[in-house]
Amino acid sequence: MPPPTEKRTLEEAESILEGVKAVVLDIEGTITPISFVKDKLFPYIRENIETYLTSKFDDDETKADITALRDLAKKDKEGGADVVEIPDSTDDNEDAVVKAVVKNVIAQMDADRKSTELKQLQGHMWREAYKTKKVEGELFEDVGPVLQQLCEEDFRIYIYSSGSVEAQKLLIANSTDGDLTEIFSGFFDTNVGPKTEAESYKTIRAEIIKDFDGESVDVEEILFLTDSPDEAKAARLAGWVAILVDRSLEQEDSIEIDEATRQSFQVIENLHDLFGDDDLDEMEGFDGQVKRVKLAANGEFDDDDEDDEDEVDDDGEEDEEAEDFAEDEEAGEDGEEEEEA
User: Which residues pair with 178 in a beta bridge?
Assistant: First the structure.
């Protein structure tokens, strides 16, 4: 595969899906804005955890969550870490246990820790948030239509995220594009291993193979889409094809992709870029329409929704470039090959 350029055309993107059988997606920063997780999901945990634990303290699920966090704290302490310990539950220390769990969870979140035990509790809390409509899952505009297209073309689609499987399903089921769970063939979280270790991707591949009923699935037939270079490197070490998704044009706080990384990995800015131009012409969104990806002269996305045919110059005459674009579009509709501008 030749070294990718920083800006890739739709024609160059035609080869991305060639030979691929399964597509595995990261969530945060790839199909969901970082701001949704940072500004909505995480603050919900901080603001509601004490109330949640108190109201559900006697539920078996909550007891299991607390036990898991307590055991993790003991393990961390044995390893020499400075942790917030959680006392064993007794008949008269509910308040002390709740306060300790709150401090433990906040400390983990402050450290940006992604422990399975933490993610499990967060997933259960988010389930309550989605159920009560306090939270709705946000997806980038291109995600719903592209996932639908991939599904219609018989690709198997999966999620691999540091968030718990339950949290993943809740987001997908309660998204701004509606319930998309039927599009996915499976969900994976850090129970299979850290996202920055190649062994995790080998484990996921073994699970994916089971979905193909004995059909061979080579490592290079699995495509991983992520905004994290470290995750992409781990997937590649496992033999997968890894593509980086740069959402910096659509959100702040994106993971910076340096020039050296861009020379090692293909980088796309939108899931539409997985397809060639002809494929995009045939794509339909959930409302029968898909916003076409339009690149400006500098290779960045053009947000201008006005019809190029209606563009006029300062003298009131029709802009010649817009006229050429309109003629190219008309030629394409007549089945003639479109020329590059």
Answer: 175
Among 105, 102, 133, 134, CA closest to 119: 105
pLDDT (0 to 100) of residue 252: 85
Structure tokens at 15: 């080869």
Nearest CA to 225 out of 76, 6, 24, 45 is that of: 24
Q: Report the predicted TM-score, pTM, of the whole model to 2 decimal places.
A: 0.71
Q: For residue 214, what pLDDT is reported? A: 77
Report the pLDDT value the prediction gives residue 276, as an integer from 0 to 100. 63
Which of 216, 211, 153 lies closest to 187, judged by CA?
211
Rounded Cα distance between 321 and 2, Å, is: 32
pLDDT at position 286 over 70 = no
Question: What is the predicted pLDDT for the residue at 277?
Answer: 54
Q: Which two tokens stand for residue 99?
A: 């306060």
Q: How confident is the model at residue 339, as a pLDDT?
A: 42
The single-letter DSSP state of residue 295 is B
Contact 56, 97 (CB under 8 A): no
CA atoms within 13 A on the CB side of 275: 19
- Write b or e for each residue in 17-56: b if 16 or more Cβ atoms lie within 10 A of its Cβ, otherwise e: beebbbbbbbbbbbbbbbebbeebbeebbeeebeebbeeb
Query: Would you state the structure tokens that stand for residue 274, as one six-digit string?
Result: 């997985």
- Among residues 22, 25, 21, the alpha carbon closest in space to that of 188 is found at 25
Minimal CA–CA distance to 102: which of 163, 57, 166, 168? 57
End-to-end CA distance of the chain: 26
Cα distances (Å, whole numbers) of residue 306 to 9, 12, 284, 311: 22, 27, 20, 8
Between 279 and 191, the higher pLDDT residue: 191
